[in-house]
Write a structure and sequence with these properties.
Layout (H helix, E strand, L loop, with lengths): L1 H11 L10 H4 L4 H6 L1 H44 L3 H56 L10 H47 L10
């Protein structure tokens, strides 16, 4: 399973610019050295899983936005169909709540997209560290051809990747702060609808 995940990761990152150690150099890597590479392989496999989860969350939220828009349209229809003032007032509150729900989901999706980018960068960094470990192992074993690769180059690509990751993480914090404000507005609208309908028209769960 680990090898399969690594194949997927390497295929996905083929054009990401990470400098690689040719597999031909590592063909004669001693068993003990291969064992030492397990940690970086596991980190890469975990990074693949994390990216898959981030992409799945983007897809789930996209579907939630679609359903929330349908809910908003239904609420607007209720306003014109209201038979009395109370029904109309509830319908109007439902419109406000459903509109705020859509905005909150959109804000959450912006967070999801940031998290997907962060996970993608994390996988790139995991690959960079894996290649760094592979070169270290190859040079330690004095494998033919390994002397042609400068460890400083592999060290620098890890540092550069980590710096990009840190920058993306800061942007995620900003987006989370913005999303929290939008969520507060939705919760305010939801509470108003819940109060008017004795909790019958305002689920605490984002749909």
């Amino acid at each position: 399973m680990r090898n399969l995940l690594l194949v997927v990761a390497l295929a996905a990152l083929g054009a990401c610019g990470v400098k690689r150690v040719p597999q031909t150099i590592l063909e004669n890597l001693p068993y003990e050295a291969k064992i030492e590479l397990l940690e970086s392989e596991n980190d890469l496999a975990l990074a693949v899983d994390r990216l898959d989860e981030a992409r799945a969350e983007v897809a789930r939220t996209r579907e939630q936005i679609r359903r929330a828009k349908d809910r908003y349209s239904a609420a607007k229809s209720e306003v014109s169909a209201a038979a009395d003032n109370l029904s109309k007032e509830v319908a109007e509150l439902a419109v406000i709540e459903s509109d705020a729900r859509v905005e909150w989901l959109r804000a959450r999706q912006r967070v999801n997209v940031r998290e997907e980018s962060l996970a993608d960068q994390n996988m790139t960094c995991a690959l960079a560290r894996h290649e760094q470990s592979r070169l270290t192992a190859a040079r330690k074993a004095k494998l033919e051809g390994s002397e042609d690769y400068d460890p400083a180059v592999f060290d620098q690509q890890v540092k550069d990747c980590d710096a990009d990751y840190a920058a993306l993480k800061e942007k995620l914090k900003e987006t989370n702060t913005e999303a929290d404000a939008v969520r507060a507005e939705w919760e305010k609208a939801r509470s108003a609808l819940a109060k008017k309908t004795f909790d019958a028209r305002a689920s605490p769960f984002v749909e």
